[in-house]
Amino acid sequence: MSETIDHVSDTAFWVAYYRWMETQRPDALFHDPLAGKLVGDRGEKLARHMGIQRAMAWSMALRTYTIDRYILEAIEGGVDCVVNLGAGLDTRPYRLDLKPNFPWIEVDFPHMIDFKTDALKGETPVCRLERIACDLSQDAAREDLLKALNMRGQSILVLTEGVVPYLTNAAVAELARNLNEQSHVTYWLSDYFSPLFNQVSARGKMMRQLAKNAPFQFNPGEAPDDWPRFFADLGWQIDQVRFLGEIGRDLGRDLPANWFIRMFMRFAKEEHLRPYRRMNGYVLLKKGHEIVAINT
Q1: Which carries the bigger pLDDT value, residue 261 or residue 95?
Q2: May I ask which residue range the UniProt record assigns to the signal sequence (predicted)?
């Protein structure tokens, strides 16, 4: 298998490697032992090739932790089905505290579904797991699938972890419309990247590597309200937003930096650090048209 990102689905091996690395820490925020089984040695090779390993380890650990919390809280609040679009090598149906009859549906490219099903054939999920092969870039197939999935629960949470950034603005808009049309889809959990993140990351090695075959494309604008306005215009307003930098600070996992930057952070005022702590995170969307400001 290639040691480079040749297709957007290859990013699943890259990020799963960092879940495996986090699992081995004595102070791990979560335990994902199946991640190691899924990535083999390919994940480490991809991580070396893509670079910024320290920052990625920090980000992926907090991303996973944050989404775990969101999902469990949503289920406690009444969500009765999770649909994971672009599920990749996610293993939450095997490791979260879920009831045996809770429906969890994973959707991804056919080759990813086949790989994952074969790799985990000896493992038992903790809930009622179903995998569906579908190329979500195909409009008719996506629309038909979402209509069918709408009947699987009364209050459905849709997760698009690490999916939206790779889509064009037009593709995100179509997905938003499709999800909004489903009467039982009540929440949508998705990535958030601030304009500052886009400016800073554009100069980095990781983005240059991704640009070859899996570029970040979604960018609703550079003004602070462009992100919430984009989704509100399509019927999705912010219910909650959680920033990885702030969660990391609260957990004793502050922003990764060299010694000089760490020294600066010790004495910097919080308002100077806030834009960096709030560069990326996860947003829980609900149906509505209100533009809820993201204060970065």
Answers
A1: 95
A2: none
Q: From residue 16, give the alpha-carbon distance in Å to each of 38, 40, 131.
A: 8, 10, 18
**Taking the domains of the chain in order of start, what are their residue ranges?**
76-287
Cross-strand bridge partners of residue 245:
none
Fold of 76-287: Rossmann fold (3.40.50)
Coil, strand or helix at 129: strand
**Order of strands across the sheet with 280-287?**
128-133, 103-108, 81-85, 156-160, 185-193, 280-287, 236-243
Helix (H) or strand (E) holding 284: strand 280-287
Name the residue with tokens 């089984």. 37
80, β-bridge pairs? none
Residue 205 has pLDDT above 70, yes or no: yes
What is the C-alpha separation between 89 and 180, in angstroms, rounded? 26
Close Cβ partners of 268 (under 8 Å, ≥ 6 residues apart): none
Q: Which amino acid is at 136?
A: L
pLDDT tens digits for 212-241?
888 899 999 999 899 999 999 999 999 999
| ∠ Cα 155 157 162 (to 5°) | 170
**Average pLDDT value over all residues in the chain:** 93
What average pLDDT does the segment 185-209 reach? 88
Asked whether the beta carbons of 79 and 157 are under 8 A apart, the reply is yes
Q: What angle do CA 157, 158, 162 make, to 5 degrees?
A: 135
